[in-house]
Amino acid sequence: MPKRDNAHMDARRNQIIDGLLASVRENGLANTSAQHVAAACGLSVGSIYVHFKSKDEILHAAIRRSNRRLESGEFYEQFGDPKNFLKIMEKLLRYFDQLAHDPIHGADLEIMLMARHDPILRKEIEVNQKARLDFIRHCASLLPGAQGLKKAELEILVVTVAALMSDADQRSLAGIDVQRTLKMAAIRQLIKTLLPASDTLSQADKGRLKPIS
Q1: Is a pLDDT exceeding 60 seen at residue 211?
Q2: What angle do CA 176, 177, 179 make, to 5 degrees?
Q3: What would the mean pLDDT of 159-185 be, rounded to a whole number?
Q4: DSSP 98-164
Q5: How confident is the model at residue 74 (pLDDT cuts 50, 70, 90)?
Q6: How many Cβ atoms sit within 10 Å of the Cβ of residue 197?
Q7: Number of Cβ atoms within 10 Å of the Cβ of 188
Q8: Which of 24, 29, 128 has its CA nearest to residue 71?
């Protein structure tokens, strides 16, 4: 039998991960078995176990693959130019609103419960949360006048916005409205409080802080 190279192995692993995600979307995480994954990815159960020891290990790999996209910034590119802070945050909130109807996102509730007893999952969730925080921090640092903020002031802005996004994420998990309008109003008010337009922003910059139409 010819030796399989790394590219072939990676392709197979990704094929299995995609099979897991497709099965979770159809059956839910708890009801997804190795047989379901095999059927979804077009491989035998034996072939799956060549690459992964268990369903949990496939799940770990799926989250790790997602986190690589987050850490590299690839995932966040879909939301536009990081300099347009308010538009980026609005698009993020719309994204969470859409996730309310995604069965894969609904499985995150099960994953959170599993993480209490699974240190690998806990670590991956921490990576996920840090990537989101780092992205918001990067966007906030590009706001007009942000260079004049103290480090602690910038962190207040970053952590508060991140908390609003986490709340939106949790609400989408429950399948309820993420309260985009309320959250955007809070973000605008926070920016105006920390970056007084009359003192630090030009007229052109002030326009960036007007409500999004």
Answers
A1: no
A2: 145
A3: 94
A4: HHTT-HHHHTHHHHHHHHTT-HHHHHHHHHHHHHHHHHHHHHHHTSTTGGGS-HHHHHHHHHHHHHH
A5: very high
A6: 17
A7: 16
A8: 128
Q: What angle do CA 167, 132, 192 make, to 5 degrees?
A: 70
Asked whether the predicted pLDDT for residue 202 surpasses 90, the reply is no
Looking at residue 78, the DSSP 8-state letter turns out to be: G
Q: 31-45 burial by CB neighbour count: b if 16+ within 10 A, else e?
A: ebebebbbbbbebee
Element (H, E) at 94: helix 85-99
Distances (CA, A) of 81 to 58, 89, 96: 34, 11, 19
- DSSP labels, 147-169: GGS-HHHHHHHHHHHHHHHHHHH
Residues ≥6 apart with Cβ < 8 Å to 157: 140, 149, 190, 191, 194
Inform me whether the pLDDT recorded for 200 exceeds 70: no
The torsion defined by the Cα of 138, 139, 143 and 145, in degrees rounded to 10, comes to -20
Site of tokens 């979770």: 24
Residue for token pair 């130019």: 81
What is residue 56's three-state secondary structure?
helix
Give CA–CA dist 120/127, Å, rounded: 11
The rounded distance, in Å, linking the Cα atoms of 22 and 154 is 40
Residue type, 138: H
Decide: pTM greater than 0.85: no
